[in-house]
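Late entry, magnesium ion complex.
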Amino acid sequence: MTSERTFIAIKPDGVQRSLVGEILRRFERKGFKLVALKQLIPNKNLAENHYGVHRDRPFFSGLVDFITSGPVVAMVWEGEGVISSSRKLIGGTKPLEAEPGTIRGDFAINIGRNVIHGSDSPETAQFEIGLWFDASEINEWKQADQIWRVED
Ligand code: DAT
Ligand code: MG
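Prediction complete; structure with ligand written out below:
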């Protein structure tokens, strides 16, 4: 089994709308392992770095204003295939086109208020985890029921 890690963040709209528990529940029920979790209000520098690939897009400044507007719940989740699977749990970027059953499909309408972020590739995941977390904030631990989720 090749385990990987991804960066997931519940954006200020998700925190304000009390969706934190619902979202954690979906990742837990899937079977992924939570290895880091914290709440913070990102500063502008962090937000601009995080969304650096979108720097030249017209929505960039609004996106940075939004993500710095309140608490974000930042997480690292671990497991086999967790990067692409998380993107499926999250759903498409445009909430009205996201499939029902996905987080965005179930809980959002507007692209600028789409509740949650997830890394889109192994390279992005590594970059984003390093941007948001110190190594000391990430915990290695074994799930007691691991043998019922993954084969040796
Ligand atoms: P995703 O969050 O699905 O990875 P993305 O990386 O293309 O999507 O864009 C990052 C965020 O930027 C996205 O979650 C919401 C915002 N965004 C993207 N395209 C936008 C647009 N056309 N108008 C407004 N906000 C947009
Ligand atoms: Mg993206």
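Residues 54, 59, 63, 93, 111-112, 114, 117, 120 surround 2'-deoxyadenosine-5'-diphosphate (ligand 1) (CB under 6 Å). Will revisit in the morning.
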